[in-house]
Amino acid sequence: MVATSLEPQGVIPILATPFREDESLDPESLDRLVRFMVDAGTDGVTVLGVLGESNRLSDRDRENAIRTAVAAAQGRSPVIVGASHPGTQATIDLVAMAADLGASAVMITPSAEPVPSDERVFEYFRRIGERARLPIVLQDHPASTGVHMPVPLMLKIIREVERVIAIKEEAVPTPPKLRALRAGMTERKVRILTGLGALYGLFDLEAGSDGFNTGFAFPEVLSAMVRAARGSDWDRVRALYTRFLPLIVFEQQPGVAVRKEILRRRGLLSTATVRHPGGGLPPGTGEQLERLLAAALGTVDITRPIAV
Known about the structure:
Number of strands: 8
Oligomer: single chain
Structural class: alpha/beta
Strand order of the largest sheet: 2-3-4-5-6-7
Radius of gyration: 18 Å
Largest sheet: 6 strands, parallel
CATH architecture: Alpha-Beta Barrel
């Protein structure tokens, strides 16, 4: 039996990876971002996720980002590291790097193969689980991976790969899959977290989600939704979701430029630079964002954790 005290739940933001204007890694902004999230009362942070531009980072960038995040957390918050790679051995090596640098867990999703195979996906997680020194969050995000994991496959992974301690569920429609996973976990239960920028947050919480592992730039809102859901105050959950849904939807545009611009306006990133070939804000988007922020938050100082 694998022993771990980490049970991902609540709100664990997926952090953007900050870059300077010349597209070099900006560790000062990452330090500031991690400290802000910890001070805001989140339940952990995740670095190097899909929208953390992990596929645009060198191994040296990865090492510097992990080292910076772990140091900034100061042991006050778990640091989860995205460690996915199309190669099984390469993923094992990325997990080892994260462990060596002090991470608390890793997030892993499979990659598409020319001939889809559930058995190969299972074998991927089994081999990694046997070698990993860290707990694993299984990410189910077919939109970015091209891999569709059916419920029976995921349940098999949960049963047989004890390093897997949570699922980040992002295969739409998410609520019925979440319910099916919950019902099928009869032998071993793990946490299930919501992703997709909280786009379906209300419905996932109603289906039994344990919280959010996503990058919405106002995690304080998600924390308030989770608290209300835990207290069965569904009127408040719906009111918060309705109030912030336009901003959630706007931030969910393809790419990470909008999210980075919000984080810049919150005083957390020195620039909203997206590494090439990613694009920046299209013309007029900044003005639209300004109106959305005003509608949702009025004159609230967004450079500080907000009270919701």
